[in-house]
Amino acid sequence: MEDKTIDLKPVARIISEYVHDYESNLIAILQQAQDKYGYLPKSVMKEISRLTDVPLTRVFGVVTFYSQFTLIPRGKHAVKICNGTACHVKGVDDVKERVKEYLNVVEGETTADYQFTLETVACIGTCFLAPVMMVDDRYFGKLTTDTVTDIVKEYSN
Predict the structure, then answer these.
(1) Which of 9, 33, 138 is nearest to 79 (CA)?
(2) Cβ–Cβ contacts within 10 Å for residue 14, how many?
């Protein structure tokens, strides 16, 4: 199922925003490509390499070095559950289990319909809201097993 059907025209548009200094702008180019496609398919990385003359090994090296990049499709919504000390003490494990059951995934997986990707993060930095999670860029705190599924449901299509 490699990405033969992916439209590569947006890659050229992204690269056209950078005037020939592609190597120093590689991370920005990759970020924009990932924003467009939701992840970095092989065909997109090859096209970036071809259009910029940056070796594919360099493109792949950058993508695999930085954790912000992903080579696998991700969900439309990122659900990040804090696993920090305050959240742990306040019962985040039960909240996390409820989300896993509701989405039918384990940590790091994406739902079959590509609506959600579930992640556990070391600390979200909002300990006063513990236990806390983020859906995309929104924070939700003082979670319970009863409230957490209602929050996730808000993002369902």
Answers:
(1) 138
(2) 21
Q: What is the pLDDT of residue 1?
A: 42
Domain boundaries, the chain: 9-65, 77-153
Tokens representing 129 are: 């809201």
Residue pLDDT, tens place only, 29-76: 999 999 898 899 999 999 999 999 999 999 999 999 987 898 988 898
The whole-angstrom separation of Cα 26 and Cα 62 is 8
**Widest distance between CA atoms in the chain:** 53
What is the arithmetic mean of pLDDT over 118-138?
94
The partner residues of 49 in beta bridges, in order of sequence, read none
Domain 77-153 superfamily per CATH: Glutaredoxin (3.40.30.10)
For residues 77 and 117, the answer to whether their CB atoms sit within 8 Å is yes
| Sheet (strand 77-82) strand order | 116-121, 77-82, 133-135, 138-140
